[in-house]
Amino acid sequence: MSDKIFVFGHQKPDTDAIGSSMAFSYLSNHRKNMKLNTEVVALGPANEETQFALDTFGLELPRIVTSAKAEGVDTVILTDHNEFQQSISDIESLTIMGVVDHHRIANFHTASPLFMSVEPVGSASSIVYRKFLEEGLEIPKALAGMMLSGLISDTLLLKSPTTHPTDFKVAEELAEIAGVDLETYGLAMLKAGTNLASKTAEQLIDIDAKTFELNGKKVRVAQVNTVDIPEVLGRLDEIKSAISAYIEAGHFDDFVLMITDIVNSNSEIVEVGTDADKVEAAFNFKLEEGHAFLKGAVSRKKQVVPQLTDAFND
Predict the structure, then answer these.
(1) 107 - beta bridge partners?
(2) What was the pLDDT predicted at 4?
(3) Burial 142-180 (b: 16+ CB within 10 A, else e)
(4) Which residues contact 264 (CB under 8 A, 6 or more apart)?
């Protein structure tokens, strides 16, 4: 096996998964002490929002891999995730050297001690940025732009309840290094990810989807951003049909889709599966034709998954 270490974010990578892994790989290779031989890789293609960020800062998506062992690599560092079902296919057989994350810890174990940085902040990129400061290492402009993009994406331009008080300063400082106006760039980047009309229903429901094990049930929770919820709901039959096929193919119990209005900070929740009653209990609403409005909800991590977890455990 090679002495190379892979650094990567989760499957179906979003902007923070790509930005935080790119930046942390660079940091690992250039720090003054304990330099590593890492390569940043991706576990899937870039979505339109992430591609906008990459194009803006003149970067290319890291090469896509599906198995570390197949690449001759047996040691990895995870960013923006820790749950094994969200990671690389052979994660169970790999040595996990480190984790940089801002999510819950679940379905995670290692045979050996590791470096672990998990903080309740708005993005994994926020954590990586502070690690650059701790090292006293200059941040390349393009990587500052990608970390900024990850923070903007995960906090919906600092409007999500997942935004930590420290994230505002992080965003300002990263925007200065990247040479962009925070509000102007942030809104343009978020809007780049809302072009849903050109996508098939199958593509739409899998843009940003994660699997969660909730009290023995296999639940897929997906999110799409839009500036026009009614336009997306106009395709509801098509979307529900695609979800049903997805559930059957992946042996899921339920599929919950968040259709999030990035301008007004609300979501429509679509549920397909065997536990509609638990989804209704989670959000104290009544599903009509498989969907319901959830006022003020923009964060899967804070406003959907914990509530589902509680409801499925009852």
Answers:
(1) none
(2) 96
(3) bbbbbbbbbbbbbbbbbebebbbeebeebbeebbebbeb
(4) none
134 HSE (CA, 13 A, CB side): 10
Cβ atoms within 10 A of the Cβ of 25, count?
A: 24
In whole angstroms, give the CA distance from residue 287 to residue 3: 52
Strands 38-40 and 266-273: unpaired
Start-to-end C-alpha separation, the chain: 46
Is-contact 145 57, C-beta < 8 A?
A: yes
Alpha-helical regions (H) of 136-266? 141-155, 167-178, 182-192, 201-204, 229-233, 236-250
Give this prediction's pTM. 0.87
Question: Contact at 8 Å (CB) between 223 and 249?
Answer: no
User: Is it the case that residue 1 has pLDDT exceeding 70?
Assistant: no
Residue type, 25: S
